[in-house]
Amino acid sequence: MSASIPEKFESVSVPSKANVYFGGRVVSHTLLFKDGTKKTLGLIFEGSFSFGTEASETMAIVAGACRVKQKGEKDFVPYASGQAFKVPSHSSFDIVVENGICEYVCSYE
Questions:
Q1: 60 phi and psi angles, rounded to 5 deg
Q2: φ, ψ (nearest 5 deg) of residue 35
Q3: Contact (Cβ atoms closer than 8 angstroms) between residue 64 and residue 43
Q4: Which CATH architecture has domain 12-108?
Q5: Model pLDDT, residue 71
Q6: Are 59 and 37 in contact (CB under 8 A)?
Q7: What percentage of the chain exceeds 70 in pLDDT?
Q8: What local confidence, expressed as pLDDT, does residue 91 receive?
């Protein structure tokens, strides 16, 4: 799926504490919007990681590339800058970054 990714977000509140996972290999910051919605902006460094979801989410790739395998799927699917993938609530996915850093915006639904 193709993603429309804004260059910046206006009128948000940003908690100063980062979300740090896997010893700093995945780091994000939360954006809180006036209407109550939430997004995270993050970096995923080289490696392989597994995440669970509570709410459904859409991850848009801002820069770099990754491969994703969602719960119940056999194969990894590649995603690059400008592309996005959805993950259902109460599910999980594996993500692999092979080269460099993958930057993303995650929108919670």
A1: -100, 130
A2: -80, 5
A3: no
A4: Sandwich (2.60)
A5: 96
A6: no
A7: 99
A8: 97
